[in-house]
TrEMBL record:
It comes from Trichostrongylus colubriformis. It comes from the Eukaryota. InterPro entries: Malic_NAD-bd, NAD(P)-bd_dom_sf. One of its GO terms (molecular function) is malate dehydrogenase (decarboxylating) (NADP+) activity. Pfam families: Malic_M. GO terms for cellular component: mitochondrion. One of its GO terms (biological process) is malate metabolic process. This is Malic enzyme NAD-binding domain-containing protein. Residues 1-79 form the Malic enzyme NAD-binding domain.
Length: 168
């Protein structure tokens, strides 16, 4: 139909982080090719219809990449335990947790969403507890006002003559 799609490279950004997260957390004996196929399928299913049709994106938005990595790690973890490739013991308790709530589990594929509503079992809580938080508190107080005498044209300028902060 004459549309131009924008391909990307899925290995470093989209596929490897989730596969590695699952392999490391569940202590895989080895990483089978199937893990990468599961990751590719999850990545493809994560692309919204709007992204595909309106923006011609073949990969999900980068802002969703952390969530995608968690979902790939869940798929990899489930596969590893199912095929006796995980050496993490005991198996995380939330393996039997029903994913009735869609609060953390996001999928854009309607068929996959129906399957996840009914009996999709995951290692989601275990994975989310292991992920490093990237949220930081502010280091600089935003309400600080520079003294007018230490400013030039509205911008703070350090005063070199002072020997201490107590000098006024």
């Amino acid at each position: 139909d004459g549309r131009i799609f924008k391909p990307g490279q899925g290995n470093n950004s989209y596929i490897f982080p989730g596969v590695a997260l699952g392999a490391i957390l569940f202590k895989a004996k080895h990483i089978p090719d199937k893990a990468f196929l599961l990751a590719a399928r999850r990545c493809a299913n994560f692309v919204t219809e709007k992204s595909l049709q309106t923006y011609a994106r073949l990969y999900p938005r980068l802002k969703d990449i952390r969530e995608l990595s968690v979902l790939i790690a869940i798929d990899v973890g489930n596969y590893l335990f199912k095929h006796d490739l995980a050496t993490l013991h005991p198996e995380p308790e939330d393996k039997d947790m029903e994913m009735g709530s869609q609060a953390h589990y996001v999928t854009h594929n309607p068929q996959e969403r129906r399957a996840s509503d009914s009996n999709h079992r995951t290692h989601e809580m275990f994975i989310r507890q292991q992920i490093y938080s990237v949220e930081y508190d502010e280091l600089i107080n935003k309400t600080y006002s520079w003294p007018t005498k230490d400013m030039k044209h509205g911008f703070p300028v350090p005063v070199i003559e002072r020997t201490s902060m107590d000098d006024e």
